[in-house]
Amino acid sequence: MSLIGQKITVLGAGVAGLAVARALALRGAQVVMLEQAAAVAEVGAGLQVSPNGAVVLDALGLGDALKAVALRAQAVDLRDGVSGNLVTRLDVGRLAPDQGYHFVHRADLIEILRQGAVEAGVELRLNARVLSVSLTGAVPIVELQSGAQEAGLLIGADGLHSATRAALNGAEVPFFTHQVAWRALIAGDGGPDVAEVHMGAGRHLVSYPLRGGALRNIVAVEERQAWVEESWALRDDPMDLRVAFESFTPRVRGWLDQVQDVGLWGLFRHDVARVWQRGLPHGGVAILGDAAHPTLPFLAQGACMALEDAWVLAASLAGSDSISAGLAAYEAARKPRCARIVAAANTNARLYHLRGVARPVAHLALSLGGRVAPSAVLGRFDWLYRYDVTKGA
């Protein structure tokens, strides 16, 4: 069906919301985006955009903008956190020129997508706090602090605590994994364009450079029993982070000694949403990104899944003869892949934190595999990185 003139409301101006807003607007839709914040901005943090996400940005006409602010990764190194020994390497620098793997500051990616949405004609409304979503009528109704409004076709990109997901699936209680994560930025140290994963018993730390090497991103995870809120707004004492990793290498401890401000959040496992969409008599609703499939951060695919979702949702609507058919095609296309990615991230969480005899045995197996068949190590991720939703793959 033609999207020209189709009125669409998008909730949330994160990666998923901004990407789908541009994708829909480029196809002629009249898109209004509702964002609860007073400005579209992201607090300091890094993220990884692997090739499957980068191809979407290319297709949206934003590939050059990404390359201008991102670093192309040379490798992802898995190291023993205590000895510092290299366990294995994913040589992502050997990927084809059109299969770039990038490190980018989250705020820079958000700004690229914001500019892209506005340039495509998206109307961005700030300070629009959503209280609830109702799907009981012929069209979705969004209840805002300022009052209720009809949405017609509603796209919920409203994150972990999505009102749109709740309207489709009811209330859900996520499972606390008994893991917490810290995140911080420090000054760059001139190191290579490599993501380093330092693994230890019950904990691991990931670090990579940002903004031309001027900054270094740090995400550290520890297993613990005490419950911690699932919120990116919590802060912690940097000393708690240093103590958690005091047995790690001097390189890691040197990074942590520089941390002056650190965020903390609890890691919760959410099920992939049972229902992603619903057609209504005069409209419809769909969810994407974290609203549909929150994932643990152990495969670095949160942003890339959101980008893939955005492209497939817009393409499915444009390629179907009705809103209901387009929404159903989107869910059918995305749910199996996202479930596989979420499951793979869960597996990585266990592998990074092995204890006792299992840890050296697993590290030895990875090391031998990397030496005997280094290309095979990266090839294990072909299903993830070489997947191109813009070509219908």
Please characterize this protein's 3D structure.
The protein is α+β, with helices and mostly antiparallel strands. The protein has one domain (7-173, 271-391): FAD/NAD(P)-binding domain (3-Layer(bba) Sandwich). Helix content is 35%, strand content 27%. The protein has 12 helices and 20 strands. It has helices at residues 15-26, 51-59, 63-69, 106-119, 163-169, 238-244, 250-257, 302-318, 323-352, 358-372, 374-379, 382-385; strands at residues 7-11, 30-34, 46-49, 71-72, 75-80, 86-90, 102-105, 123-125, 130-134, 141-144, 147-150, 153-156, 175-187, 194-200, 203-210, 215-223, 235-236, 262-269, 277-280, 283-287. The strands form 4 sheets. The protein has an 8-stranded mixed β-sheet with strand order 6-5-14-15-16-13-18-17. A 6-stranded mixed β-sheet has the order 8-2-1-12-20-19. Strands 3-7-4 form a 3-stranded antiparallel β-sheet.
Keywords for this entry:
single chain; alpha+beta; FAD/NAD(P)-binding domain; six-stranded mixed beta sheet; 12 helices; 20 strands; globular
The number of helices is: 12
Shape: globular
Number-wise, the strands total: 20
Question: Which regions contain 5 or more consecutive residues with pLDDT less than 50?
Answer: none
* SS content category: alpha+beta
Helix content: 25-40%
β-sheet strand percentage = 25-35%
Fourth-level CATH superfamily: FAD/NAD(P)-binding domain
